Each structure stands twice: as structure tokens, then as C-alpha cells.
Fold this sequence. Notes:
heterodimer, A: alpha/beta, Rossmann fold, 4-stranded antiparallel beta sheet, 10 helices, 10 strands, globular, B: alpha/beta, 5-stranded mixed beta sheet, 22 helices
Amino acid sequence: xxxxxxxxxxxxxxxxxxxxxxxxxxxxxxxxxxxxxxxxxxxxxxxxxxxxxxxxxxxxxxxxxxxxxxxxxxxxxxxxxxxxxxxxxxxxxxxxxxxxxxxxxxxxxxxxxxxxxxxxxxxxxxxxxxxxxxxxxxxxxxxxxxxxxxxxxxxxxxxxxxxxxxxxxxxxxxxxxxxxxxxxxxxxxxxxxxxxxxxxxxxxxxxxxxxxxxxxxxxxxxxxxxxxxxxxxxxxxxxxxxxxxxxxxxx
Amino acid sequence: xxxxxxxxxxxxxxxxxxxxxxxxxxxxxxxxxxxxxxxxxxxxxxxxxxxxxxxxxxxxxxxxxxxxxxxxxxxxxxxxxxxxxxxxxxxxxxxxxxxxxxxxxxxxxxxxxxxxxxxxxxxxxxxxxxxxxxxxxxxxxxxxxxxxxxxxxxxxxxxxxxxxxxxxxxxxxxxxxxxxxxxxxxxxxxxxxxxxxxxxxxxxxxxxxxxxxxxxxxxxxxxxxxxxxxxxxxxxxxxxxxxxxxxxxxxxxxxxxxxxxxxxxxxxxxxxxxxxxxxxxxxxxxxxxxxxxxxxxxxxxxxxxxxxxxxxxxxxxxxxxxxxxxxxxxxxxxxxxxxxxxxxxxxxxxxxxxxxxxxxxxxxxxxxxxxxxxxxxxxxxxxxxxxxxxxxxxxxxxxxxxxxxxxxxxxxxxxxxxxxxxxxxxxxxxxxxxxxxxxxxxxxxxxxxxxxxxxxxxxxxxxxxxxxxxxxxxxxxxxxxxxxxxxxxxxxxxxxxxxxx
Lengths: 251, 501
């Protein structure tokens, strides 16, 4: 794998579902970019994300990672090279932190990773290695989740509401640290979030989804300037008005 | 007391091994089936449904059903003993294991399962690394339940001729030896408690990942199984199986025969409490090697002869019929069906015989043993004299005499060799029409030993050597309420009588 994260390309990708289906998406995520997928619940953003590592299989279209169709080969092999971080983390409760981090190399038959280095990468002290997931706070657990996703040296990260279950302070801190990690490791990050403020502050590019389609596509600055269409403006209006009301209270 | 405890270790060992084998087989079936069913709701519904229905069949009935089933298979498949007990108990152990595998796998955190998939585990890796360890405590709890049930139900294995602690319970129940019943019950309960405790240790070790309790539990289970297996490896002397039906006289005679064979150098085991039809079939198949049956029973039940024949003709006919099994000869007494009343009751009859009874029968109640009312002898005597009772009730043989004594019934189907006839001062009603066939006690030997000289030499001294008075007294020693003797004690006394002749 390159030092830089791969490019991800969606070509006419569709998948019908009761709610949250994808109706046809064509889009290219540039190598090394940090892209946020925003939209209301049921807009299809998680479905689109989960088609990249084939947790959901598309009905139509294809997805290419650095030009290679993800549908080639068995899904488990594909997934071992893509970091996947999601809201409920899913640490194995019967394994220590170190065992959780080493899980992907273990199932892939690769040598055990440097656990201490990975813990350091997510800013956890090395003595956490022997702890059980149940003994960690929510933010610590999600950091272990990130370390686990990075353990095989994956360069493409899929993040599905990764910080959604955390309190605002923890969430802000861990978001920033992830952003630094993204830059330092040269990752390609595709993050689903329903929090527009988070998307604006972390991503290079924001894709707005509604009813299974991409209805807005802009940089954070462009988005604030109203270049991403009505759906996007409506979503920005909420944090913007909140910020204004907070500012008003201050006076 | 020593007599009571002597057979305990051997029976407990058999009990334990039978239970372990049953739970083992159930695991072999339920674990893979449960894993499949956890992914397929319809398979789960069907398999849990079937296992649930099996569970509702009473344990005794399930065991009993396997006997005809295995008989139907034939081809030398033993229909008695370990095999039917093993299969029936395994079926019984299926449900708790299956249910807990399905529940355990179904109750796993969806986030953990999503992570397992998202990280790139194959289905097999997910089962091994995630599902199995996380569901293990629940599955272990199911195995524990299954084990306790199985150890309890294994007492019933006695009825299909498998050795278990049930031997003590059933034999004790027949001879009203409550000490023996209690020993059987307590031993089986103790086994269940110990097994439950050890499995609880394993369960705890699995759930909390405590290595020491896991090790301790496994060590205990292995130790128990090894200890139970040791007696089976034992000496190389040939083992012969002495059979007994389910009443006192049979237990006494089995011990008498067994003691003689032991003196002749055979290792002896007992299959006691067999049903009447089961015993003869078991002998002809070689599941048991020797036991005592009664000429009238074989004549009417097995050979389906409609009418009694003279004694010599009956015995010769049976000897020919049973080949290649061997009729060694009659023991010298009869245990015939007879109808008996308390003396005052009999005195009020027009005549103290079955004709007199027939006249009074519509005002009287008949108490019969469990078999009698469905036997051809009953039909024969009923039709010959036109017997019509006000009511008929069935009892276990020992309880029948109680019923007569307490006035619950007025007439009982007694046995001519029964010690309680003399002891209770009963009147046996004469049979002027000779409707009841003769019931010579005859010694039968399986085909495998029909030409075994030492074996036959040990037994032939019993032929014609037991007068009915001696048999009645031996029976009464076991049946009486106070100062009871064990069947082995009574057999020793009877052996003394045989020697004296």
C-alpha cells in the first residue's frame, strides 16, 4: 500500500433498502482527503459507507479503490485492509486492549503489531494494554477502536458516526486528535456524521446526502458560503444559529 | 448394612459412565446443530420444537420405547442394557444444551458481531474467536442442566437392563427394603450435586476467565470419569449376566444362581427388574445368560398355547421351543397364579374354591398385580368360572397384599410360592376346573452357555432342589415388614437348604 491513502471512486452505486437506501452515487474521493458524509437519518450515508468494505453489497454500480473493484475476491480479505470505526466501537469484551488491537493482524495471519506504538498513536498510556474494555471510558474505547483499525497499516479509514456516542468535550478532543493522525499518516478518511459542525471543522470536503443521492458537494468554506445548495444551507443553519445564540448570551 | 453398600461403587460407576456418555452424545449433536440453528431461525424453531416434545415424554416411557425400536432394527443390535439407555438419555439431554447454544449465540452484542465482520473475520474465525468464547457461559449452564437431569433420569435405566443406581431403588421398592431405596436415591443425588458443582466451577472459569476454577473443574470431571472406568478394566475372568424379573423371588433366585457361578470362577453381574416378556427375549438374544422363568408364562405368553397341558408335556414343549437356549430343568416348586382371600372372607363363600368365588364375585373387589389382568391366565380363569367382580384394581405385587390386608380389596391374584400366603393366613382358592396352568420355576440358560460345562455344572444341582416351602420362607424373609433380609441374605439361607438335601 502507498504511503498515501488510496483514492475511492463510486460509479453509479445503488442499493435499495426500506430506509437509508442509495439511489445512485457517482463520486471520487481523492487520495489522502478527509471527506465527511452528512445528511439527515435515512439519507443513505451509512449504507454508502458500508458498501466500500462490503458490509452491504450494492445492487448496481461499482466501487473502486485505487482503480480496483472491491467486489473482486472474498470480502473478509478486503476488510482487513480497510480501517472501520463505528459508533458502538464493538471491542471484544473477552479480550484485553492489546488483544483487541492485535486482532486484525491475528486473523490475517500477520505478525503482531507494536501495541505500545499504536496506543501512543491514539494517546493512551502503555499500561492500558492489559486492561479489559469494560474498564475504559467511552472516549478511551473509541481510541482503542481507532488503534485497532490502524493496526494493519490500513490507509483507508471508514468512520461511521465514530464519535457520536461521546460527550461534547471528549468528542471535540478525540476529533481533533484523529484529524492530526489523518494528516500525519496520510490517510484517506471517509466519515459519516449527522453533526454539521463536526464535518465543517474536521473535513476537507463535505458531501451532503438526501434520499440516497449526493445533493451537495463543497469544501467547508464553500459550504459556509452557500455553494452547496439548499439542503446544505438548512443543515448549516442549525449550528450557525446555535453559535449566534450562544454569542448573544455572552453579551 | 455392608450388604447394602457393597454394590454401591460399581453401580455408581456405571451410573456415572452412562450419564457421561449420554451427555457426551447430546453435546456431539446439540453443539453443531445449535450453531446452525442460531443462524437459521426456522431450523431453530423446528429443532427446539422436536427437542421440547421429546422432553415432555416421561423418562421411563422414552427408555421403554427404545426397546421395541432396537428390537425392530435387529441384526444383533442389543435391545437391552447400555444402548437403549444411552440413546434415550442422550435425547433427553438434548434440549437444555440446544436451547442454550441458540440463546447464547443469539444474545451476543450486535456491535461486537459488526466489529467481527468489519475487521474481516471469516465466519469460522468469528465462531472460534468471538461467538464461542462469548456464548460459552450460557452453553455451559445448559450442559450443567442437562447433566443434572441425566444423572437423575439414569436411575430409570435399570428398567431396560442397564446397570445404574436405579438397581438399588427398584430392587428396594420391590422388596420394600427402604434402606436400599434410600441408598440409591442419596447416591444418585450426591452424584448429581458433585457433577453440578464441578460443572459450575468450569462455567465460572469460562465466564470470568479464571484459569484455576476451569482447571479444578476439568480435573474433577476427568478424575471422576477415570475412577468410574477403573473397575471396568478389571480382571479377565469371563463375566456372565444373571437376569431377574421384578419381584422378590426373582431377586433371591438371581443371587442364589450368581453365588454359585461366582464359586465356579465366573465374574457375575445382575440385570434385575426386567419385565416378563423382556427377560426371555433378553436370554434368547444373549443379553442375559441365565434366569428363572415359569413354565405357564412361557407356554401361554410366548408360545401362545390357548390351553394348559399336563406338566411333562408342557416342560418338554418349552425345552424344544427355546432351543438353542437351554432349559436346564425345573427347580422343584411352582409359582402359579392363584386367587387368594383372607380366611374369614373365604369362609363366607358358598365353597372355598373358584366356583364359590364366582357366585359371590359381583359383591367383591379384585386386586391384581400389574400384569395379571392383561394375561391369558386371567382370561382363562375368568371365562372358565364366569368371574365378574364389582371392581378390579392393579397394584405392584408387594402392595397388593397390603391392599388385601387393609380391606381395600377382597380377593387378590396371589402367587403360590409367596411367603405372605402362609404368613398372612390367606386361603388359596382351589381350581376345580383346572383353568390355571402350572407354573414350574424353570432354570433357563442363554444359547452362548448352553454347552458351557462348568457353567451348567454350577447350576444343575439346583434342579429339583428347591421345595415350595423353602422358597416361600426365603421370599418371606425379604418381604416381611420387620427384620427384613436382603435378597442376597435370603439366597444364602436358601443355598443352605439346597446343600442339606
